[in-house]
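Propose amino acids for all 133 sites.
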């Protein structure tokens, strides 16, 4: 389901995707309250993103990768929608019961064809950036 929250004359700068309709509805309320016109939302699975091939500059997964049932399929889907040279940023927090240690995240993402670029943060909260090859 595609739900643009934008003025037709405005470019989409942010595309938010979540499998939970309640999360998207909450985001849509916040976007409207902030009078943003450049946000597009979708209720969709990470396994089947409603986006064109090579249409995204940067993708963010914030404490979500470990919760995706088929991580390899989701990473392949992200690879599909990212433009050549696009960036995938993954953030994990230790207090999350599904926390992935950085070496495991790197192994998974590199196996999907991404190149590890840099890491920020600490053991407890990190962001790892990967470039599409």
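Proposal:
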């Amino acid at each position: 389901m595609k739900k643009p929250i934008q003025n037709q004359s405005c470019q989409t700068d942010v595309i938010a995707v979540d499998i939970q309709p309640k999360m998207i509805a909450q985001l849509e309320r916040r976007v409207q309250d902030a009078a943003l016109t450049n946000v597009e939302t979708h209720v969709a699975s990470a396994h089947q993103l409603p986006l064109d091939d090579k249409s995204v500059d940067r993708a963010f997964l914030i404490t979500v990768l470990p919760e995706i049932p088929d991580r390899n399929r989701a990473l392949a889907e992200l690879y599909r929608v990212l433009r050549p040279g696009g960036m995938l940023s993954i953030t994990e927090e230790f207090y999350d019961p599904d926390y992935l240690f950085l070496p495991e995240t790197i192994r998974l993402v590199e196996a999907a064809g991404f190149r590890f670029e840099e890491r920020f943060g600490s053991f407890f909260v990190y962001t790892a950036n990967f470039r599409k090859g």
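The two ends are 30 Å apart (CA to CA). The longest strand covers residues 82-93.
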